[in-house]
Design brief:
Chain lengths: ~150, ~140
């Protein structure tokens, strides 16, 4: 059952989730006094979507691998895991933030609420290890929408 | 500021509604799965539904299961063995099912189940097995 797994550094995932929560909170609270801070939401959407398809462009993960880990600020936590559900969850967060960015122009309350929900889900993953995107990935895989990884008998 | 407050209210309402739906879904699945049958065994055992996409299974559930001591854990890949997973209405991972020796499901836990909870459920399963039969 472990043919599709590899070592995934969960500290990189935690730094990514912390980055999402912090950026959305800065945009959410900061925009009350300085509205242009809302631009952080579409920027975060771009960062998450780019990072999903090109891991070398994942800003927060690169911050971890290039700065935090080498300097010993955050210790690595390698876990035998599959990276795909986490990437899927990140991509889903990016899509929701992209929708939120569009809504910010037409219906700011809904746009802000959607961005806040993405931050809440990232926080739940960070604090309790519950990944909604991973559960959706499991359901899609179970229904055959996504192809399960190669298994040995 | 009012846009932020309204957004907070909308997000809060969505979170509450999701929590309510999840609670309803879990209770419904539990009642549907109660009494579902699998292979009988000499002792109560645990059916542990997991999958490669489940991180909590590896980081939380498996360490909890290893604390239970002498109990048989039947590990099931919920994606590969869909029929068995459907019988127990597995909609989330991990799912643990405490099975009585006669192969009937006694307790179904959707999501992470800590070791003390599983321990209590196993003790109950063993108690049911050890209950003396009333005689005239």
């Amino acid at each position: 059952m472990s043919t599709g797994t590899q070592l995934v550094d969960h500290s990189a995932l935690k730094v990514n989730q912390t980055g999402i929560v912090a950026t959305v909170l800065i945009a959410f609270i900061g925009s009350a006094v300085y509205r242009p801070l809302l631009v952080l939401i579409p920027l975060l959407a771009i960062v998450l979507l780019l990072g999903t398809f090109a891991p070398q462009l994942a800003l927060f993960k690169q911050l971890y691998f290039k700065v935090l880990k080498p300097r010993g600020i955050v210790k690595p936590r390698p876990v035998q895991d599959r990276p795909e559900p986490h990437n899927f969850a990140q991509g889903l967060g990016g899509v929701f933030l992209a929708v939120s960015s569009v809504l910010l122009l037409a219906a700011p309350v809904l746009g802000l609420a959607l961005a806040l929900l993405v931050a809440v889900l990232a926080f739940v993953n960070l604090a309790f290890g519950y990944c909604l995107g991973c559960q959706i990935f499991f359901q899609l895989e179970r229904r055959g929408v996504l192809k399960p990884s190669t298994r040995s008998s | 500021m009012s846009a932020q407050l309204w957004a907070l209210a909308v997000a809060g309402a969505v979170v509450l509604a999701a929590a309510g739906l999840e609670s309803f879904r879990s209770r419904r699945a539990r009642s549907l799965a109660a009494g579902a049958a699998a292979a009988p065994a000499a002792e109560p055992y645990i059916l542990y539904f997991t999958g490669e996409s489940c991180t909590v299974c590896r980081t939380h559930q498996e360490p909890a299961l290893s604390k239970l001591g002498d109990v048989r854990i039947e590990k099931v890949d919920a994606v590969a063995e869909r029929t068995l997973a459907d019988r127990f209405h597995v909609y989330t991972l991990p799912t643990t099912v405490v099975m009585a020796a006669d192969g009937k499901a006694l307790h179904v836990n959707y999501g992470y189940a800590p070791a003390p909870k599983l321990g209590r459920q196993l003790a109950e399963a063993r108690g049911i097995e050890l209950r003396p039969v009333a005689t005239a």
